[in-house]
Amino acid sequence: MSPDGKGGAGGRFKKAVNHALERTTGHQITRVRVEPTRRHRVNRLVTRPTFIIAPVRSGSTLLRVILDSHSEICAPHELHLRTMHVRVTEYGQRAVEQIGLDERALEHLLWDRVLHRELAASGKKIIVEKTPNTVFGWDRLQEAWPRARFIFLLRHPASIADALGRVRDGAANKTFDESEVVERIREYTEQVEQARSNLPGLTVKYEELVKEPERVVSGICRFLEVEWEPAMLDYGAFRHGPYVPRLGDWGPKIRSGHIDSDIVVPADDQVPEALRPISAAWDYLS
Q1: Would you tell me how many other CB atoms lie within 10 Å of the CB of residue 278?
Q2: DSSP state of 123
Q3: Is 119 helix (H, G, I), strand (E, B) or coil?
Q4: Chain centroid to CA 122
Q5: C-beta of residue 135 within 8 angstroms of C-beta of residue 191
Q6: Which residues contact 244 (CB under 8 A, 6 or more apart)?
Q7: CA neighbor of 156 nearest in space, from 10, 45, 263
Q8: What is the pLDDT of residue 60?
Q9: How far from chain centre, in Å, is Cα 98?
Q10: CB of 157 within 8 A of CB of 284?
C-alpha cells in the first residue's frame, strides 16, 4: 500500500488512535468524504478591465483615443458587450448546468474573451472599454469582473442634450422633439449617478478634461497605475481605428486629432427643468 494513511504503519497508527479514543470517549476520528460541488468560478482572461461609465455625447470617444495613445493602454472602439447574448438549447443547458454555468455566466465568459482578444492583439497590458449604453447594465460588469475599475465621465447635462439633439438632426435631416432628447439624457445621467453611487472609481469632468488635459489625464494614469505619457494628448499622431457611427463619435472635432478646449457651459436658466436635479448633483448649477 502507498504511504497515504490507507495502509502500513500510517494505517496501524490511525487504528490505534481511534481504538484508544473509542475506549475513553466513545468517539472515533473519521474522514468525511466531501463531494465536489460545482460553483460559479470567476476565472477571467482579463482580470481587471477598466470601464468608462458615461452618457452619450459626453466626450467618451475623446477620452478613449487619448487613453489608447498610451503605450500600455488598449482602448478599442465601443464593443457593446451588453448586447452580446448567449442562448443555450435543451441538451446544452444540461451540459452547462453540470459544470456550474448558466446563460448569464456564459455571457460573462464571452465578454471576457472579446476583451482578451482586443487586448492581446494590441500587445498592451490594460484594456479600457467605453460604450455609453453600458450605464444600463453597470451591475453586470461588476458581477462579471469583481476587480474591475471604473471611470465616471461627467458633462453638463444641458450640453449633452444640446449635442445629442444636433447629432440626431444631422443624421436624420429632421428636427427631433426637444422633450424626447431631454428625457433620454435624464435616463442616461441618472443611471451614471446610480453607478457612481454604488461602484468605486474615479470621476472625471469633460469640461476639465479639455481645459486642463495634462492634469486630468495624468490623474487617470495614476488611477490606472501606469506612467503619465505627454504624447497621449496628441492623439491624432496614433491610429485608433475608423471613426464611424454606433462605435463612438465620428464628427469633425474628434477627427481633427486635437483637443478642442473652446466650449461654452450653459447658463443656469438654459438648463431644462428635467435636467436640473442631476445638474445640481454634479455641481453644474451655481
Answers
A1: 22
A2: T
A3: helix
A4: 18
A5: yes
A6: 77, 250
A7: 263
A8: 97
A9: 29
A10: yes
Q: Cell numbers for 180, please give them.
A: 424626447
Mean pLDDT of the chain: 87
Cell numbers standing for residue 73: 493602454
- Cell numbers 478613449 correspond to 64
Grid cell, residue 38, equals 460545482
Task: Please count the helices (runs of H) and the strands (runs of E) in the chain.
Answer: 11, 5
Crossing angle of helices 178-198 and 157-172, in 10° steps, is: 130
Cα 220 to Cα 216: distance, rounded to the nearest angstrom: 6
CA distances from residue 7 to 17, 34, 199 in whole angstroms, order as listed: 14, 21, 55
Helix (H, G, I), strand (E, B) or coil at 133: helix
Q: Give the amino acid at 14.
A: K
**pLDDT by residue (tens digit) across 184-243?**
999 999 999 999 999 999 999 999 999 999 999 999 999 999 999 999 999 999 999 999
In the chain the beta strands, taken as DSSP E runs, fall at 50-53, 73-74, 126-130, 149-154, 202-205
Q: At 284, phi and psi to the nearest 5?
A: -100, -5
pLDDT means per 10 residues, the chain with 286 residues, are 44 52 52 40 89 96 98 97 94 90 95 98 98 96 96 97 76 66 96 97 98 98 98 96 90 93 92 96 95
Spatial CA neighbour of 63 closest among 284, 240, 285, 273 = 240
Query: Any idea what DSSP says for residue 128?
Result: E
